[in-house]
Amino acid sequence: SQQGEEDPQALSIQEGENATMNCSYKTSINNLQWYRQNSGRGLVHLILIRSNEREKHSGRLRVTLDTSKKSSSLLITASRAADTASYFCATDAVTGGFKTIFGAGTRLFVKA
Amino acid sequence: EAQVTQNPRYLITVTGKKLTVTCSQNMNHEYMSWYRQDPGLGLRQIYYSMNVEVTDKGDVPEGYKVSRKEKRNFPLILESPSPNQTSLYFCASSPGVGWITDTQYFGPGTRLTVL
After folding, report:
1. Which of A4, A41, A100 lies nearest to residue B45, judging by beta carbons?
2. Would the CB atoms of A33 and B103 count as touching at under 8 Å?
3. Best residue in B44, B56, B60, B101 to probe A by mutation, most A CBs within 10 Å?
4. CB pairs below 8 Å between A and B: how many?
5. pLDDT tens-digit profile of B26-53?
6. What percent of chain B has pLDDT over 90?
7. Is A12 or B99 the better-scoring residue by pLDDT?
8. For chain B, what is the HEC assignment?
């Protein structure tokens, strides 16, 4: 069962523009995480936001969490060609053990 | 260097031939997990382990087995592989303290093809 659903599925922007990706989930969570994956490689953790937090920043990344809407957004500001990758949100569930559920991801392409 | 290693990185096998993909972490993490990644489906969790001798099913456990005899190792076993298990597999580990999961560190992946 898919918990996180990313939107859009694919995004193409020019270098210097901002990129926004959204994630929706279905059940109550303890935390939500965003990961990045370069083509076929392992995932790299970007940022974790707890259920009692609303916004978090890390460098050019800004993550928001709205638990009432069961949604999160990842904003990458001043994008670079090197940001080209797939981005995934992952959630745990308050109930259901210690599973981690990933969404299908957003493929971001930043044109130089 | 803190890392999660997987072996082999690439494997082509035939239906029914038992195989094991190894996973090892050197960060003394409690939590370890296996995922498979298929186009358009993101990552789906196969099994996870909270600690030695403690394992539990993820969303897609059918056809897989795991064991956690040592903290650092979490092998994935396919007793009778089938073509629908052709996929990219990732192992991950996490400090995973208490009841809340935490940042996961991923291995480089194992690309498995079952003919």
Report:
1. A100
2. yes
3. B101
4. 71
5. 999 999 999 999 988 889 999 999 889 9
6. 82
7. A12
8. CCCEEEECCEEEECCCCCEEEEEEECCCCCEEEEEEEECCCEEEEEEEEEECCEEEECCCCCCCEECCCCCCECCEEECCCCHHHCEEEEEEEECCCCCCCCCCEECCCEEEEEC
